[in-house]
Amino acid sequence: MTRHGPGSQPPGRTPVGENRWPLVAVAGLLSFVAMLDMNIVNVALADIAVGLHVSAGTAQWAVLGYQDRDTAVERVRALVGAAARSRLEADVPLCSLLSGGIDSTVLTALLADELRLREGPGARIRSYAVDYSDQAERFTGDVLRTGHDTPFATEAGAFIGTDHSTVVLDPRSLLDPGHRRAVVAARDAPIGVGDMDTSLYLLFGEIRRHSTVVLSGEAADEVFGGYPWFHDPAALAARTFPWLLVTGDEAAMPMNPELDLRVGEFRDDTYRTALAAVPHHEDETPAEHRQREMQHLSLTRWLRQLLHRKDRLSMAQGLEVRVPYCDHRLVEYAFATPWALKSFDGREKSLLRAMGSRLAPDSVLRRPKNHYPATHHPDYNRGLQTMARDALSADAVCAIADETRIRPCLDTPPERLEWGQRLRLERVVDLALWLDHYRPELVL
Predict the structure, then answer these.
(1) pTM of the shown model
(2) Among 55, 65, 60, 63, which Cα is nearest to 279's?
(3) Which CATH class is domain 39-248+267-393+408-422?
């Protein structure tokens, strides 16, 4: 481990072509504070950047402030429909991800309707969902997950008329060392989320057997205000990245205190920099002001790692993912639309739910926001604890991680291991794999 003096290495940056990482940047990534640069993520973020252009957004605010609900719903319907149709152009087999949430269901319904217009009433789009072998019996809700996806995805597929498949994974495939190493190599950084990464990688591998392009409902939560932090008074009042309060990711990977990395200062500086980029309108209320900050943070910071994850893991399987909700015309309109319109029914994603009222089953329309699924099988937890225990035997890992705060997670009975504790172990395992794969020089 190399120690550099002040000014010798900008924090949070890695010189191109060098296998050198500032340790504070590694800590930031492990805690979901530092997100990867926009220019290394696929074209979707470039599209979003256009949609958030200050002059364009400001020019619309005065007009949209007086817009009625029906007009807003129809405008969203037109923009989402156009975005979906434009991403349907392909000369290779194409399909859709269908989780059973409103985002993917509305998108898949639009794609299916357009495909029938182009190819005839008998045309059916393929759709895919992922599930775990234990999920029906062992599902346990948490702050991010409200229900089992598969029944909703199956109902949505039947309602739309897709050729629907569910890829079911077991603990053995999720714990397979070869799969874990492939995921870490694909992500190119120690920022994984364990079984959620491995399952997505394996899902994409199964999809690639039949299709070359898949369309995803990613970004609808950022565009339409779907995350819990848009509606949680504590998150709205907090002066930090809102996902740190809701998901607990800030503490997921405790760092060795002997390193004295001042991650808190790094987090605060990063947050101030992010807020400084948010455009505002002089006539907006304090509540509207804060919601605009939350949406901008979500679109430009949180969404980065989601698109990076999806892009890296799909391309590792030779699959292209397209994200219609990232269309810059839709992002520009939604960002400029007042929060009162975006939440007019007192729930998340009001405009999307209204425009999709005839495209999805009632059960999906009423369903609360549900995060990407995680397995609850004790065998997975038991295997993860073994892998984390092995990871902590490496000096390089212990030099970075706070072993005293991680050890209690190893002693917890597997069936009682909570998701936050498990995420801590997932990061330890991925950190060990990353260090072994890349042998980076870590700079203090």
Answers:
(1) 0.89
(2) 55
(3) alpha beta
pLDDT (average), residues 43-64:
51
Q: For 128, list phi and psi in degrees, rounded to 5.
A: -135, 145
Residue 197 · residue 180 · CB < 8 Å: no
11 has a pLDDT exceeding 50: no
Q: Of 102, 2, 25, 5, nearest to 262 (Cα)?
A: 25
Q: What whole-number distance in Å separates Cα of residue 73 and Cα of residue 79?
A: 10
What are the backbone angles phi and psi of residue 101, rounded to the nearest 5°?
-90, 170
Q: Are 163 and 124 within 8 A, CB to CB?
A: yes
Question: Is the model's pLDDT at 281 over the cut of 90?
Answer: no
- Domain boundary assignment for the chain: 39-248+267-393+408-422
Burial class (CB in 10 A: 0-12, 13-18, 19+), 320: middle
Mean pLDDT comparison of 6-15, 190-199, 245-254, 261-270, highest-scoring range: 190-199
Question: For the packed helices 378-391 and 403-411, what is the interaxial angle rounded to 10 degrees?
Answer: 150
- In this predicted model, which residue has the larger pLDDT, 12 or 292? 292
Q: Which residues, in sequence order, are CB contacts of 63 under 8 Å at separation 6+?
A: none
